[in-house]
Structures are given as structure tokens and as C-alpha cells.
């Protein structure tokens, strides 16, 4: 539902003015101002559920179901949106998807040919000649903007750059892997040459070479670009500015600025209550690494200001209580009172009463203006206790010999010890997800053996989370999976993965990142002996991705992670194996676990 959204205007830039979005009584962001000029690239960051995907959809002109949208939007006439989940039907043919993406480019090419033909005809009069010339000039300008003459070359270069140049374009979308579908969706969008780009997690499923190719393409893009990403390295390399949609960061900046902050003095500023519920956005013009330092500094000053105010409130309460006793009526004067009164008379009581009044006034003012306590971050609380890892001395918990999945994977040997920390790397299509599926028992190998130690439980956090019932709530799904008794012992709210306000919302209304948080909660609440994670940082906020990585260091069992994440790989302290498309080879680390 859309209401009070002024008609969208056309412009060379992207501009949202006073944009507010709410779902029922749940505001997402309020009074948000965004402007992105041609050639600039704005990175959206914030916790899962902060509204990044919602903002991209609204900027693209898509009405989020059930949303109330207020504000004004200006954008280029041809604005393209990359969804986190590719919108193509399973029976669509990959090549036809690409051809449909360049349909408008083909139309411009045909119009240029028709305009050129009309220009070459014998004009009946000067007016017709002028009209033909004007038509040709407009068609030529449009064709030059999208470079219609190089579309086949650009298509092939783009597919090769994204690592899908060798994928049979006659295959149906449903036959492609999740990573291939995402890359075809990205290629289709870039080939359509929109004037403005809106990208939702564009580096998901991209290996190093593909991510580098996308970075180069975006840095050369002439129109405005807005993208949401969890990839810190990508943000650092591509973004020319950042917008943090985390409501807590707005309050941190206000609190850090002090009580005389300009925000407090602006007419029509968003109320404290609105800030507590929704984001008004925090803009930053530097790199992501610089922003992290600024954000932490703001939050540190917020904490120190809150602590100082609470200390002052305690002092004032004590002063008022002490002063009230000094001027209390109805008790007999002490010898000390009589002695002081003999020298100073009634002025003492008057001075004490004045100090009490001043303290009460200061107390009242500070209670009215004090900053709220910094909110506890929505963080991964760690692996719950209760799981006991198998003995390390009893041999591997998983062992693979001469493993092969036709056309997808070949692993001569692999041993996973009870306390292994194993990173699986490799380009897209090398078989990382296939290996995890085989280890989890979800996919049968065509050749070879997979031996599991008796009694060993294996759990997999998949790349693409799907809940069969979109109407089930996180709380209900959690209790259904774990059982009522276990769910009570290890409550979902205590894991820090799902916000309290989302516990009873249908999972179908949660963001992709929030659904993945729930899937993660279902695993860590009942820890397995072997935890397999397929691209664990995909769709998770940057803060949670780091917390998950730290928590895995204390996991009471074996951990096997498949990831293309450059930041995670640089920090990995365990063993590593690298897969290649034609098979498997171990990296410089041992491949048998620590």
C-alpha cells in the first residue's frame, strides 16, 4: 500500500526527499534524505532488517507489500534493480534471459536503423526533413548512451568476467546453481545499461575474479549507483559515500555531539521517540574502514556521556536527600543546630533550602534531557553449552576417500578431526557447496566413500535458506525444530540473532539476512559435532559476520567453512583446502584439521 508519495520525477541523479516507510505500526526509516549524483556510488550499511532492501525497492519504484510510503523521489527514467533473489522463473532459458535484458537496447538499434532510413528518403518538404533529422539525432543520442554497437562484445566480456562464460546458455534457470543464477541476474542487469543502478548484495556468490570485474564496471559507471553490501573490501574499493540505516548509529552521533547538537536545534527534527524506532540515516563521505573508526568513537562518547549523566543524577539525588534532611521540619534541633544558629542564625536553613531547590531543578532538567542508554547490539551470543565434542584421539569424525560427483567435484582424500577448523576455498563452480552437501549426507557421491564416526551429528548452514511455511514465526519454527523443552532451556531471544520485535513475525516477511539468522539459530541452539557453513557471511550484517567468526573459534566441535569472503580468508587461522574446477588440491596448510 502506498500513500502520500509524491509522483516520481525524472532526473539525472537519484534523490529521495523526506522518505519514510512503515509496515503497519513498525517504522523502518523516517524522514530520510538521499541524493546520489551521476558517477557517485553510495553504499548502504546497517543491521539485517534495518531497511536496506526496502530502500532499494522504493528507490526503484517498487511498492513493498503492506508498506506505507511517504516522501518524494526523483530518479533517471531507466533505473535498474538487482534483487538478492533472482526473479526469473525456473523454466526460463539462460540465453533468453540475457536476450530479454538487452531488448530495449535492440529496440534502440532498430529505431536508429529506421530513423536513418527515413533520413535517406526524399523529403516531401522542409518540415518533414527537419522532423526526420530530429528523429535521427534523438535515436543516435539514445544509441550512443547504451553503446548499441558493442552489445555482443560486452555481453561476452561480462559473462567471462563474472565466471559464467562457459555455462551453456541453453540450460534452464532451475538447472543452474544458486551462484550461477545470481551472476546471470547481475549480467542481465548490467547488459540492459540502465542509467542508474540499484544493487542488493551484488557480491554474493562472486569469487575474487568476478568481484574484481564488478568493481571495475561500477567504478566506470557514468550514472548514480546505490548498493547494499556486507562485503567490507568491496565497500572500501567501490563506495564514494556511505549511508548507515542503523537507528542506533543516529542516536550515537547525536549523543556524541552533546546536548547542544545541531540536530537538537533544527526545526522539525525527528523526535527522540521516532529515532528510537526508525532510522533517519547517518551519511559519511569516507571509506568504510574510516567509518568503522568514527562509528566506534561516536558510540564510545555516547557511552561516556550516558555514564557521566547517570553519575550526576545519582549525586543530585543524594544532594537532594541530604539537603532535605537538613531542612526537615518536625524534629527537635540538635546541639549542633543550636550552635550553628547561634552564630549564623536562620541564614543557614535558607542557604540549604536554596541548594536543595537548585539540585532538584538540575535533577529534573537532566532527567528530561538525558541520553538513553546505548542499545545492546544484536549480537551472536556464542555457542550454547551442552554439546560435547567427540574425542580428538579417536581419529577423524569425517573421512573422504576417492570422492567424485560427476562434473562437479573430485576429492582424492580428506580427513576432518574432532576439533578441526577447515576453510574450503575455490572459484565458483569448483565444488565447494557440493563438498559440503556430500559431507552433510544431502548428496550421494558417484564414486568414493564418506565415513562418519558412529554417533557423530553433522549440521549444514546452507547458502540459500528456504522455509517451507512462509507464515511460520521464528519463535514457532525454533520450538518446532528444537522441541519445547530445549527451546525453553536455550531461548531464541537469548542468542541475540533475532530482534525481539521479529520473534512473532512470519518468516516470509523477514529479510533474507533475517531468515539466515534464524537458520543459524536453529543450528547453534543444538550444536552438532560437525558444523558445515556454506558462505556464512552472505546476507549477514558486517557486525554479525565478525561475531560469528569469533564464536566459531570456541565451537565445541569441528567447523568446516566454504567461503569466497576475502576478509574472512585473510583472517583464517585454521587449515585450508583449495578446490579447482577439475578436481581438488590442498593448499599450503594441512588438510586434516588442527
Description:
The protein is an alpha/beta fold and 594 residues long. It folds into 4 domains: 1-77 and 195-210 and 221-286, Rossmann fold (3-Layer(aba) Sandwich), CATH 3.40.50; 94-194, no CATH class; 288-369; 392-586, P-loop containing nucleotide triphosphate hydrolases (Rossmann fold), CATH 3.40.50. Helices cover 41% and strands 18% of the residues. It has 20 helices and 19 strands. Helix 2 (94-101) packs parallel to helix 6 (178-191) and helix 12 packs antiparallel against helix 14 (347-369). It is flat and about 110 Å long. The model is unreliable at 260-277 and 586-594 (pLDDT under 50). Pfam families: ABC_tran. This is ABC transporter ATP-binding protein.
Present the secondary structure layout.
Blueprint: E1 9-10, E2 14-23, E3 26-36, E4 41-45, H1 52-59, E5 67-75, E6 79-82, H2 94-101, H3 103-120, H4 126-146, H5 151-161, H6 178-191, E7 196-200, H7 208-219, E8 225-228, H8 232-238, E9 241-244, H9 247-257, H10 262-265, H11 272-277, E10 282-284, H12 288-326, H13 335-344, H14 347-369, E11 398-405, E12 409-416, E13 421-425, H15 432-439, E14 447-452, E15 458-461, H16 474-482, H17 484-489, H18 512-524, E16 530-534, H19 542-552, E17 558-562, H20 566-571, E18 575-580, E19 583-586
Parallel strand pairs: 1-5, 4-8, 4-9, 6-7, 7-8, 13-17, 13-18, 15-16, 16-17
Antiparallel strand pairs: 2-3, 2-5, 9-10, 11-12, 11-14, 18-19
